[in-house]
Amino acid sequence: MRLPHRVLSSLDKKQVAYSFSRAARDYDRVAELQPVVAKHLLSKIQLGSNVGADDFCCDLGVGTGYAIPQLLKLLEPAQVLALDLAEGMLHICRQRHAEQGVHFLCADAETLPLANSSQSLIFSSLAIQWCPHPERLLQEIARVLKPGACAYLATLGPASLYELRDAWAELDDQPHVNRFLSAQDWLDCLPDSLRSCELEVQEQVLYYPDLPALMRSLKDLGANPVAGRQAAGLGGRARLQALAEIYEGYRQTQGLPLTYQTYYWVLKKSVK
Ligand SMILES: C[S@@+](CC[C@H](N)C(=O)[O-])C[C@H]1O[C@@H](n2cnc3c(N)ncnc32)[C@H](O)[C@@H]1O
């Protein structure tokens, strides 16, 4: 069976880590959507039982650590494990968050170097769309969560970046923009021990003055690696000019739109 997420499996993790490491220093300045999404995801956190000083909450794909202060406050006196694939992101995160009770770990969310049932909560905002093997990721989340604990995940849905994907599709059939899993794709990967408790879908549209500014924003965020791109490349100046002309067809009064469809997902691990 060829599941849609097989398309993602060619995503090169070294390239992902490199792009985010390179973007880390300026990430907070250019990240427009990310703080909004993290804030909304944080608002969903409910704690069924009290947490103690020995409890851990893992922020998977922590980036520069935008959510760390709020996680520490919400979960006090629990400790926060700031985990990211990109050394460069963790470096900035470590500089910004010297608070007590924060630990840093450079690791891959699909192969977590964490003990079974060791985490009282998992938080992950706009990171898991970079994981090419969603079944593996969800199995790892299920394995490391304590029984009865929850994972709060925000990720991008398939309508995200559709204007850019559709504009490229008028030029060629190569992959230029990542594809994102649908809610059903994610549900199909859910292990038996995880139950989906809530799924909220939102759409946000960002606007740019022109195509170079739009493309630069993706690059500055580190969000430019594309599964299978080695074969496609971006093309020369003439192709980018052709793309810009096509994209003009989407222009609105605020500028050139780029849509982000965000899934806010709450999963709970069974108690047995
Ligand atoms: C768009 S940033 C989001 C960062 C932060 N959560 C925020 O909301 O600002 C995505 C982050 O996920 C990390 N990431 C990507 N793939 C990962 C993986 N397989 N395991 C752990 N982190 C990963 C990247 O290095 C990057 O820091």
TrEMBL record:
GO molecular function: carboxyl-O-methyltransferase activity; malonyl-CoA methyltransferase activity; S-adenosylmethionine-dependent methyltransferase activity
Role according to the record: Converts the free carboxyl group of a malonyl-thioester to its methyl ester by transfer of a methyl group from S-adenosyl-L-methionine (SAM). It allows to synthesize pimeloyl-ACP via the fatty acid synthetic pathway.
Protein name: Malonyl-[acyl-carrier protein] O-methyltransferase
Catalysed conversion reaction: malonyl-[ACP] + S-adenosyl-L-methionine = malonyl-[ACP] methyl ester + S-adenosyl-L-homocysteine
EC number(s) from the headed UniProt entry: 2.1.1.197
Coiled coil location: none
Gene: bioC
Domain Methyltransferase type: 59-149
Protein family according to the UniProt entry: Belongs to the methyltransferase superfamily.
Gene3D superfamilies the UniProt entry points to: Vaccinia Virus protein VP39
